[in-house]
Design brief:
Layout (H helix, E strand, L loop, with lengths): L10 H5 L5 E5 L6 E5 L2 E5 L4 E5 L5 H9 L1 E6 L5 H8 L8 H4 L4 E2 L8 E2 L4 E9 L3 H4 L1 E11 L9 E5 L2 E4 L12
Antiparallel strand pairs: 1-2, 1-5, 3-4, 4-9, 5-8, 6-7, 8-9, 10-11
The structure holds flavin mononucleotide.
Amino acid sequence: MARKSFPLSKVYGLLEPGPVVLVTTAGGEHANIMTLSWHTMLEFVPPLVGCVISNRNYSFSRLLATRECVINIPTVEIAGQVVGCGNTSGANLDKFKHFSLTPRPAMQVGAPLIEECFAHLECRLTDTRLVDSYCFFVLEVVKAWRNPAVKNPRTIHHLGGGNFMVAGEKIRLKSKMK
Ligand SMILES: Cc1cc2nc3c(=O)[nH]c(=O)nc-3n(C[C@H](O)[C@H](O)[C@H](O)COP(=O)(O)O)c2cc1C
């Protein structure tokens, strides 16, 4: 089979681990929202999630200052707002107002849940050892929420270059993985 060399800059699109998420942080004049696709599970229980948040983003300083955030999981229905939150900065914009998203109080952290998302992970920052070298934050999920009315969430997955995949068909296979 003929194979073409694949650009190293696009490798992440092949291994994309999960859905694009919206990370909310508190503090400052208003709560903020950023779009994030570079995340990975690190532990089952307590759930640990690793996230790369660039130090060019306003959310970087907000997360370091408050040590809390919420990972909100959106579906394709709000894809336009998701991309919008990824193309604007909370340093000069209230994204909740601008993108007509609704903040709801979380139970364990100061950052808000986003009403329009189907699941929410309230997180505390537990490990910053890789922040200086990789902007990699280790978060512990201390409370999780899911809307049971959304049976088959059509999450969006970033493939790079403005391309997204929408999750669809669900299949069941025997697997040793939990
Ligand atoms: C689909 C998508 C995925 C993104 N993933 C990440 C990511 O994983 N890490 C990151 O630092 N920025 C990511 N971004 C860029 C940030 O969302 C963007 O820089 C945003 O403006 C940051 O907002 P803030 O300055 O209000 O924190 C992504 C943007 C999009 C559109």
